[in-house]
Amino acid sequence: MRYILVLVLFSLLICGCSESSNPVNPILINSPIWPMPGYNARNTSSPYSPSAIMKPVLNGIPDWSFTFPAGNLSDGSQFCVDSRGFIYFLHQLGTLGALYKFSPDGNVVWKRDSLMQNNFAAISLSRDESRIYFVAYKPGINDALFCLDSAGNYKWHLPSALVTKPAVGSDGTIYSFYNNGLAAISAGGNILWTNALVTGSYAQNYIALDRDDNIYTIKYPSTCVKVNKSGAIVWQFTAVNNFSGLVIDGYGNIYFSGYSDNRLYCINSSGQLKWTKENINSYFSPVITSDNRIIAATQIYIVSYDTSGTEKWRCTGFTNQTAVEGLLLDGSDNVYYIGNAGSELLAGSVSSNGSKRWEVNTSLGTTLPPPVLLPQGKMLIAPKRAFKIQAVN
To answer: Is 346 within 8 Å of 318 (Cβ atoms)?
Structure first.
């Protein structure tokens, strides 16, 4: 009996030195929330979209391209890519705008005419990728939140929408701006709640979610707010006029860039300022690696910080010292970016430790919309007024 007791105690001693695991919930407690490798690079706006292995873009060589019909083009359309590599893109061709779906190799799967947006045209996916959501207008319909299925069939639209990129929660609820106030919308297009105190601004409405579906967004013009899933404000943090992006690390810290002071801000999960960094390229948001390092663009440099704000490394993005924009991460935490060298659109990549991998001149003109990655190991780029899209392998 004493021998058995000794064995039990010895077993407990050994097991007690190991961390417990929960097979029901395999998510690491401190893994980053928004954005994360696997959907940030695909720009889906859903933390719960199907996972995809984001292969590295190895060569930095132009691959396939697609040229759109010529005409009077508008600014700012963004890509959205599903887990299989199919691409959604709203082409902004005056009154002849159209929503496209491309295959991973650049072939048109379908095209839906007469949908248009002037700026910040952004598309989001439902959890199962069977629905796409975007704000657009068309003849007879002013800015509205549209829902189409992945085959291009019209499902519904909600009028009086403010131009934004919707976020999609764990239960499929869509978070966007309706009648200039933050709103929760069902998958069927019905308003669940609105908060008129959280006002948006045209083309500046960034929305992030945490694991409890709390909502983080910008209350125009200068306040970062946390709103619970019932629509009540939890806290507010006032910073500077206009922000770029909102991202959350695995410890609940929130990061964004300030337009008017070119600073990177870090606030904690209670909405209190932790630290700031100067000389940030404020047009694009920072990104967060799988081990909670923050990567930001500071003029010509790409800089890595830990969660305390300590710089870990910095790397010059382009050999001609062009400013860096539009950061992305693949599944190995390699960093991708673009830059505007006069009338030339450059693309580049550095490794997770800041070593240069490649750079390429895509000859596409000036920048504006951020790039996107395909799971197949390709980077997709479009210029400010998108006459063409270009893949890089």
So the answer is: yes
